[in-house]
Design goal:
Helix content is about 40%, strand content about 10%. With about 140 residues, the chain is of the alpha/beta class. The radius of gyration is 14 Å and the shape is globular.
Length: about 140
């Protein structure tokens, strides 16, 4: 990855620590109550909102979607699971990517959900590489 800006370094440090902490029973239960699922989420996008994204983006099998700032993989992996699309997972901290890769394997999505360590400012993809791009609960 190219040299990171000060903001990227600071964000990486903040989220590296957050993603490195395992979810507790209490946080998983809170996620089920608030978001509607237990996906290791670290944002506020609900299952209902993720499903709205899938409909609005008209995601389907064969499509490629980019999830920018994936965190632990929510909602990108969920969208891949329910629509059949492939998802490229991107974020700065390796801890979030590692959690997302484990979740992808557990959900049977590993082959269609590669992870790329990348800042939203310097995405290593050519224009028009994806049918859809999502970035939920992230400022970039």
């Amino acid at each position: 990855m190219p040299k990171q800006s000060r903001d990227e370094v600071d964000a990486g440090a903040t989220f590296r620590e957050r993603y490195g902490r395992p979810a507790s029973d209490a946080t998983r239960e809170l996620e089920r109550l608030v978001i509607g699922g237990d996906f290791g989420a670290n944002g506020y996008t609900t299952v209902e909102q993720a499903e709205l994204l899938a409909r609005r983006l008209d995601l389907r099998a064969g499509d490629r979607m980019l999830d920018v700032g994936l965190g632990r993989g929510w909602p990108g992996l969920y969208l891949a699971k329910v629509t059949g699309c492939s998802v490229v997972l991107t974020d700065i901290p390796e801890e979030g990517l590692a959690t997302a890769r484990r979740r992808a394997a557990a959900e049977g999505l590993a082959e269609r959900s590669p992870a790329v360590a990348s800042s939203a400012r310097r995405l290593p993809f050519r224009p028009e590489s994806f049918e859809a791009v999502v970035h939920t609960d992230v400022l970039c």
